[in-house]
Amino acid sequence: MSIARDLRYAARGLRRDRVFTLVVLVTLAVGIGISTAVFSVVRGVILKPLPYLEPDRIVTIWSTNPLRGWSRGGVSRQDADDWSRDTHSLAALATYVPQQANVASGDTPARIEYALVTPDLFAVLGVKVRYGRPFGPADNEPGRGTAVILSHAFWRQLTGGDPAIVGRPISLDGRPVTVIGVLETGVAFPSPTTALWAPFGTTPDATGPRQARWVQAIGRLRAGVGLAQAQAEFDAVGKRLAATYPETNRDTGILLEPELHAETGGARAALLLLWGAAALLLIVVVANVTNLLLARARGREREIALRASLGAGGASLLRQSLTESLLLAGGGALLGVLLSAAALTLLSRISVDLPRLAEVRIDGWVLVYTVAVALAIGCAFGLRPAWRALRVDPAEILRRGGRGIRGAGDGLRRALVVAQVAVTVVVLVGAGLLFRSFDRLTAIDPGFATAGRVTLRLAPDWVTYPERDRAAALWNDLIGRIGAIGGVERVGAVNRMPLTGNWWTTEYAVDGKVLERGREPTANFRVVVGPYFETMEIPLLEGRLLDQRDGVGAGLSTVISRALARREWPGRSPLGARINFAPEMKAAPMYTVVGVVDDIRSGSLAEAPTPVAYVSLAQARYGHFGDWGMDVVVRTADPRVALDAVRREVHSLAPNLPVFAVKPLSDLLREDLSQRRFTLLLLGIFGTVAALLAAVGLYGLMTVTVTQRRSELALRLALGADSRSLLWDVVARGAGLAMRGTAIGLLVAAGLSRAVASMLYEVRPLDPMTYGVVAVVILAIALASAWAPAHRASRTEPMEALNGD
Fold it and tell me: Of 664, 175, 628, which Cα lies nearest the Cα of 454?
């Protein structure tokens, strides 16, 4: 009954102070809502367990090679077979490689993602086949590889949910395969859009030499085996393989990493930073609300004194004060959850490169977190006013007519404002460093033009076009037809677009240079069709570009990037030099360097240009895997009309060839920076909110201070003091608090600067400009916040103030 009575009394009191209640609820809703939204993302991406059996026992296995900069590289199938045979810490080990294929869906060709796998993959994941059977050893034998297992989502899309699909054939890249099973729902490996799985159906040696590390490996730890124990065993096996195969494994190590970390590693640092920033924002919120409650408590001292005089005990006053604080926190939490739900809805519509983004939602654990946060901050901002209620001296308060004791609680309020300013500085410094870094990245020349260009991908399959010459003829025909479309100015194609990763990296050897086997340098290998360089406006620096002279039967030619030329032929021209790609292959041909083009950013804008070698499709001996897929770049003034015409031309020439991955070329830049943009946007919002709350807190404190000093200021004015000096006296007090908070904040930010160091580009964590600008901005906000109360104080009428007091 007492709790219900306290709740009713608190609700009545808050209804009476509607403006105060609204301000506090909005403040709490913003702080709790931001914290809840960020935690929802953190939980969905990096805290929520993967949807597999005992997911903490699943590990990704990487190859490492410090000499070549591999910290987490692919593995070879031969190495994986040796690991499976020579280690005992894993209950199962599997390899896989993501793929894409063309399938027919009604009259419209479509493109799907699938994975080539070894049969133990589903045992590693601990998932079951809902209909049919899993893969068996026979499915992976050479010459087989015609069985497939469908994902639950693709099964429903393909058949509407008909179990009779098991045993029936479907067409995959023009090749008939048989559906042997349908997986249970919820399997999203290696990506949420994986439609089916197929066995390799070939021996490891048939898919490349031991140094061809083009697949991924995943394993399940045996029960009772820890990660460190398994890592030690794999280290020992890695050393044995290095001794047995020195040419391919001498510098290669092995790294085991929890699968959850492997899937989310690129996003972990940014999300943990945002979570920390959200926690700092909550500190600002608590400080702000505490100041508001202290100011309100001072105005209610007469009421509290009367209740104490009438017999209300200290425990009753304490309980009542905390009840009011927790009621406010609960209301703020409710509004915060609604705000966070709206924020997550907005996030789902924003293109941001976050793994497991589809799993981000407000679930039971997020609500538990929100309730815990609300209880914690409710106690935090309610404790001090409640404690003051216990220390009320009724006689003193009533003797002074309810005006309270001047200066009571002022020290705490000043400390809270200093803390608000300090925390705001920390958040703004982090946002400023990321902004400076982002600004540097956006100023980078990627090495190609994007305006007025669209890109799409076509992937003729190897069944329909089994020979490279036929594929080259098809591509030349396609590029010619697209180039003849009205409004198309230029068109070219490449096997892999810039800014999409250092895909298809190959070893090479320059004619006349003797290199130690196993330590050959590497370069990205790009296959082009048509005037690709002219379409992308990649500048020619020396020699000529690839053209019709580099066709079937002609001498093998290559164009190289400036980075490759500088590495191998520093200070001299590489024209006429000969270079051998994939020297480990028997009878690997020599290509003659006929031109040098400027560098592009292959992996990302933040990565230095990688050496690249370009060859024509007609003369390429490799550079494709699984199909003859190429990215087409079209330069046109009207992309919509041009794309409609491109689809018609493709359909007329190859009716079963889908057109997919259609987007403006500028999207490559946007996608590359999406995660940084997302982090910067949220930190900017946090910093802005924190700065506003700090300004409100300082404004409130200066208003209370001026009110308390009203008689003193009036007396000084009556004795002849200059109003301007009084104004600057008040402003200086506010500026002093802001300066102390700024100094503390800058020191804390400098100490925490390592948290953002890995996310910076050409900006030092202790960047003087960022720290200086933040300090100036905070001091300007402080001066503006203190000016209004100071201005009112300087215009006080002395006699009116003295009579009122």
Answer: 664
- Bridge partners of residue 454, in order along the sequence: 634, 664
416-443 pLDDT tens trace: 888 888 999 999 999 999 999 999 999 9
Please write the tens of the pLDDT for every residue from 88-112: 999 999 999 999 999 875 667 789 9
Give the pairing type, strands 578-581 and 522-529: unpaired
CA distance 595 to 534: 14
Cβ-contact 166, 131 below 8 angstroms: yes
Dihedral Cα 424, 426, 432, 434, nearest 10 deg: -130
Pairing of strands 522-529, 612-616: parallel
**What residue type is 539 in one-letter code?**
P
The answer to whether 37 and 109 have CB atoms below 8 angstroms apart is no
In angstroms, the Cα distances linking 655 to 104, 109, 456 are 10, 8, 16
Residue 58: CA count within 13 A, CB half-sphere: 24
The dihedrals phi and psi of 459, each to the nearest 5 degrees, come to -140, 80
- Number of CB atoms found within 10 A of residue 411's CB: 9
* Residue of 748, 680, 682, 610 lying closest to 437 (CA atoms): 680
Q: Which residues contact 796 (CB under 8 A, 6 or more apart)?
A: 710, 713, 714, 717
Alpha helices in 160-251 (DSSP H): 227-244, 246-249
Distance of CA 365 to the CA centre of its chain: 22
**Predicted TM-score of the model (pTM):** 0.84
**Measured distance CA(80)–CA(121) in Å, rounded:** 13
Please say whether the beta carbons of 581 and 508 come within 8 A: yes
DSSP letter for each residue of 641-681? HHHHHHHHHHHHH-TT---EEEEETTHHHHHHTHHHHHHHH
User: What does the radius of gyration of the chain's CA atoms come to, in whole angstroms?
Assistant: 34
Can you point out the beta strands (E) in 308-403? none
∠ CA 160-165-166 to the nearest 5 degrees?
140
What's the CA gap between 7 and 439, in Å, rounded?
52
Phi, psi dihedrals of residue 301, rounded to the nearest 5°: -65, -35
- The single-letter code of the amino acid at 547 is D
CB count, 10 Å around CB of 698? 28
Indicate whether 567 pLDDT > 60.
yes
Q: Are strands 660-664 and 612-616 parallel, antiparallel or unpaired?
A: unpaired
Per-residue confidence (pLDDT) for residue 771, from 0 to 100: 94
- The DSSP-derived string for 40-67 is HHHIIIIISPPSSSSGGGEEEEEEEEGG
CA distances from 499 to 271, 395, 438, 607 (A): 23, 75, 16, 10
Instruction: Identify the DSSP state of 593.
Output: E
Q: What letter does residue 359 receive in the DSSP assignment?
A: G
Alpha-carbon distance 657 to 458, whole Å? 7
CB 476 within 8 A of CB 188: no
CA 339-335-686 angle, to 5 degrees, is 50
Tokens of 477: 């025909």
The pair of structure tokens assigned to 71 is 């910290």
